[in-house]
């Protein structure tokens, strides 16, 4: 008998993309996602929508990204391109067998592939086509979270099967305050950073492109970041790599100093992907009360209530973001340990609590 | 990571001999998750040749999606999506690699839905059935296939690679010699347990499967003259049709048509299959198994029909490119073992006895 939580999850995910009859929806996942993939396909079928399942052995690009000649890696085949261009929507149901599957992919190769895919996915990034990204609870994802699978399932479904309307309303109120402000200052352990949101509106993710949602996010003014941020509490995780103790110093919006206490080579290699990789593309505020602890999984970690995150790399054009890059790397900063957020000089959050 | 040598050799065989992948090609690979080792090796080899490996991985074989086909409206299920149609029209080669987790877990689809699924995926098969592009159908030795064959995985892997990793150039030459004798003959007679059947292959040249479109290969086959089959035959190898087991099928032919059909198990399934359309009761193919790496049945038609010392006949559709005129929605291969006292005669001359060639 199937887990009723999976059926509810599948309905919720299809609600996130809100498809129209006749749409062609790409359903991307990995083999372990089977129970959710199959429920999502049934739900799409019921709504008269085509489900085009595309499984990969990992979410990084597998053997192809590791070994293909560079000139093949940098472009999509005609069939792939047609598929991405023609599809109305995609769903990424991440179901890892091993969350470090990309750890042996050099930053250069990953960057070339990401750039090719990012170009093809522009309409999704611009918000013209819907998409949703989420996790299916696997042993590997549970392991990263330091939990047993049943614990992780309870956690995951607890974070996604909630009253999104109520949470969305609460987040809208917070977003209004940020929309009205110009300068954001983040103060915390090893951290004193300011940047500007002047003229930029935020977006509330309650039932949208991420499941779980629960963040408010902006694209900051590209040349405004000044100061230092130290991600001392949590590792920064990106395409199978884990980097500890990341510290950046910004001047005029650009990272002018970067260091890490582990895997620094990958960090510096990624910053060299392109010019946009050294600037901020996103400032996000975690608001999901169902997520309390870091689990080395960005989709969840960036939603932890009482944290903020900043992404280096590409920004959101629909939020006014101008920065372009092949990368988009979210890094989460804990503020529940004495940190605070100021808006135009006024403290609005302290120790992770809204004032 | 070290790749198992047999897997590496198998992948090279498929990418090299079967498809001969060229730079810039888009190679569509439809398969299932359990085939991971050979799929990754193939993708490595294809990329190494400067071509795009396009993996179409699903729990059922693309372009079919079983759970979706359960709930989607009939008009969508019966028509290929625009995206998959484009892929079908632009692929330069295709691989079908079956790797089932459960050979009986086919689906919960009703026969009506199954027919719609077949209709929907027909455009995908058009270019390969017409031999417009290189293609190969093959399998990966999964525990489920081993179980079906009644073997352990290790035993099944030995069996599998023994059938597949052969000197195909030598096999091709050997089969071409045998085929020449058949091509020169008019009447084939098959005699064995409860069996005495004649068929005409006059003016119908055969074709050798020398390890290209099927892996394993190892047969040569004909489209017999449609109204020529006369007599009776017992197919002693177990088979199945759309997931239903059918054992020990007996057919009696008159003027090419199977007038009587019985089976010791699954007779209803047999009769349903033969009732699909008018062409389903006529013989679409006569094939001669020549693969000496296959010495026992594995309840797996891709292997069983190639077993040396057997012949098979397909009920239903024949191949137009070798002169076949029979049209049907069915093409169901049934295998007859001749190693237990059976024989093949060509125009009255015995050419094979007890499964051993005399020519």
Characterize the structure shown.
The complex is a heterodimer of chains A (355) and B (359). With 355 residues, chain A is an alpha+beta fold. Chain A folds into 2 domains: 4-160, Thermophilic metalloprotease-like (3-Layer(aba) Sandwich); 164-354, no CATH class. Chain A has helices at residues 4-17, 34-46, 62-67, 70-73, 78-86, 107-120, 122-125, 139-144, 149-160, 164-180, 264-271, 298-301, and strands spanning 24-29, 50-55, 89-94, 131-135, 183-188, 191-196, 203-205, 210-211, 215-218, 226-231, 236-238, 241-243, 246-251, 254-259, 280-286, 307-313, 328-334, 340-343, 346-350, 353-354. In chain A, the strands form 4 sheets. Chain A has an 8-stranded antiparallel beta sheet with strand order 14-13-10-6-5-18-19-20, with helices on one face. Chain A has a 5-stranded parallel beta sheet with strand order 2-1-3-4-8, with helices on one face. In chain A, strand 18 (340-343) and strand 19 (346-350) form a beta hairpin. In chain A, helix 1 packs across helix 2 (34-46). The longest helix of chain A is centred in the middle third of the chain and has 17 residues, at 164-180. The termini of chain A are far apart. With 359 residues, chain B is α+β, with helices and mostly antiparallel strands. Chain B has 2 domains: 5-164, Thermophilic metalloprotease-like (3-Layer(aba) Sandwich); 168-357, no CATH class. Chain B is built from 11 helices and 18 strands. In chain B, strands 5, 6, 9, 10, 11, 12, 16, 17 and 18 form a 9-stranded antiparallel beta sheet that branches. Chain B has a 5-stranded antiparallel beta sheet with strand order 7-8-13-14-15, with helices on one face. In chain B, strands 2-1-3-4 form a 4-stranded parallel beta sheet, covered by helices on one side. In chain B, helix 1 crosses helix 2 (36-48), helix 5 packs parallel to helix 6 and helix 7 (143-149) crosses helix 8. The chains are: A alpha+beta (355), B alpha+beta (359). The interface between A and B is large, with 38 and 37 residues.
